[in-house]
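Predict the assembly for these two chains.
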Amino acid sequence: MQIVMDAGDWLSLLLHFLVLSLLSIGGAITTAPDMHRFLVQERHWLTDPQFSASVAIAQAAPGPNVLFVALMGWQVGLNAGGLHLALLGVLLTLFGILLPSTTLTYFAAQWGHRNRELRAVRAFKQGMAPIVVSLLVATGWVLASGARPQWSDAPLWAVALAATLVVWRTRLHLLWLLGAGAVLGWFGLV
Amino acid sequence: MSFPSAPAEAAPQERPRPRSLPDLFLSFTWLALQGFGGVLAVVQRELVERKRWLTREEFVEDWAVAQIMPGPNVVNLSLMIGARHFGWRGALVALAGMLVAPLAVVLLLALLHARFADSPQLAGALRGMGAVAAGLITATGLKLLPTLRTHPLGRAACLLLGLASFVAIAVLRLPLLAVLLVLGGLSCALTWQRLGRA
């Protein structure tokens, strides 16, 4: 796929991600539907398979999942004409999605730390604790069961359950577990 | 004005902490590179259990802030930890550690992807790793349960609030923001009231 991008297009790419950054409560992935609308449907800078591959590769790779945003910038740049534009795309999208949210978090955390004795700050941090702990368990549950649970996924659930028990109860290194999961999957056992 | 969940405050100078900015950078790079399918479980394992830069209680409190702010949660968390030890330079260095090396790996994978995308073995391996990653996150939540033992609301109320959020997210699949605002708001209000009475 070949596209043409002028300076104004690159600027609007940056601006769009700067705005999405402020809306990304719960993580950048929550704004993915809007990225799809903008990049694929409205501007035609990415194809549908290129969009999906960006999300899938970043999920499978190590590191924070937000890197799927960098892959979108990379792919837009490749479509526009080569590696140097791909690097420009990475810089603009990643900078855009991170700058507003990290700045806001930095100042909020500093404020919270300075005022940690305030009853409101203590109430927020301690009050959120039961919700936050429960959300972690729920997130793992959602990831393991997928969008629509079906019986053919039972081996995958067994692997997730076994990993849960091992991590909870032992200090085995996490990479051994991930390696075991990869081997089981490679040979088609899950 | 003392509350029981902060015994770690007693001896701050005894606590392990990042020795330098390069130490911070390498620590975050190493844990980010282990984080297939999400870095959170590794952050908990490396920074709370192994390095002890954070107590479990601090981890839960920071995670609450990281989740309620916009932006990738684990990026927010690393930024806050870096900032606590070395100010804005620490924040930038932790962020760079979290992103630079993984970004290189992801771009490399994108280049390889076009060639090997059709391999069923590779797809299977990714599926298997995904299932393990799901288990890691659940286990992280289970390991943090003991932090609620000394919670001002008491165990029964924590259990109820936790169960309600689990059902809302895992069973009803309600939006995260709504759950944080409604159940989180309720929990914070009750905690605020309880702290005032103590």
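The CA atoms of residues 99 and 195 of chain B lie 39 Å apart. Residues 1-10 of chain B have pLDDT under 50 and may be disordered.
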